[in-house]
Amino acid sequence: MSTSISLSEFQKEKDTFQDVLPSVIHSLVTSPNLSEIPEFSVWMKKILDYNLAGGKKHRGLTTVLAYEMLEKPENITEESLRLSRTMGWCVEMLQAYFLMADDIMDGSTTRRGVPCWYRLPEVGLGAINDTTLVYTSMMEILKTHFGDKKQYTNIVNLFNETLLFASLGQHLDLTMSQRKKNDYSLFTVERYNAIVKYKTANYTFKLPVCLAMLLANNTDAQSHKRAEEISLEIGYLFQIQDDFIDCFGAESETGKAGTDIMQGKCSWLAVTALQRCNEAQRNVFTSCYGNREPAHIERILRLYEQLELPQLYRQEERNRYDAVMEKVRGLSVDTSLPPELFLIMLEMIYKRKL
């Protein structure tokens, strides 16, 4: 089973997608609600230029590519493509909102190879208000460009549902890192799966695909359910990759210093390690995990290697990939959801290193 979109075509769309951003920002800062205060428009542009720079843009690009694959060919026009790219940038703004807030809560120092927004001297904790500005600006853009569209209410509801789910996932994630010291009773597969579903998978894969379906006026409940099931499976694969990269990825490649060990996060590596530890290894884990001391972080990394987690990760990545492929093959009879859509999503992330 092959994809109908090559990586070169993907790169071409990425370039086109990037070219749309200035006009999206311009439509925001010149809107009636913002244009009366020029100083604010300048600040809003600075926020967006900084926090939308860099990154892979997979969520926004998936929105565009999914629309192209789901829409009837006769309905695809330059205007409909422009709108799909605008929608894609709204998804990227939602991502920026999450990352800006996440960096503050995690105490991160860098993001995409540059200082986190809140670490800039002229920003500081004013970044908390800036995150709200990013989200509400996203909603303003949606109203400006889609307010007269048939699916506008469904689109807004989908964004709001995604925010609710992501906030729930973030709550689960934070409560895990704020548990009583050495209490790892909640580091279970079930808890981890819940964090992944709500914090990552919904907005990373389900949201772009379901938005594209709405842009194509597909509101069939069964089709949306199937899209959600496969998107969440891909999201799980994506998150275990993120967990592995956080610990074993090179900062020079990822642009972000890993923080999961020092923050005591409920990651795939931590959950799997606790399942495999003997008593002595568990003592090492409980003594060193969630500690900011470089020697303790290094000891956890050595423990992961002793438990052969890098090898297990590669096998788990393959198993998850095969499981998604099996579900995709089952879509052949459903013409409203072309299998190629999910294949290109898999192709974008499989065996990624950043």
List keywords for this structure.
354 residues; mainly alpha; two-stranded antiparallel ribbon; 16 helices; 72% helix; 1% strand; Isoprenoid_synthase_dom_sf
Main β-sheet description:
2 strands, antiparallel
Topology as H/E string?
HHHHHEEHHHHHHHHHHH
Largest sheet, spatial ordering of strands: 1-2
Oligomer: single chain
Principal-axes shape call: globular
Strand content: under 5%
Summarize the topology.
Blueprint: H1 7-29, H2 32-35, H3 38-51, H4 58-70, H5 78-106, E1 110-111, E2 114-115, H6 127-146, H7 152-177, H8 189-215, H9 221-248, H10 251-254, H11 260-263, H12 268-276, H13 279-288, H14 294-306, H15 309-329, H16 339-349
Antiparallel strand pairs: 1-2
Give a short overview.
With 354 residues, this protein is an all-alpha fold. The protein is built from 16 helices and 2 strands.
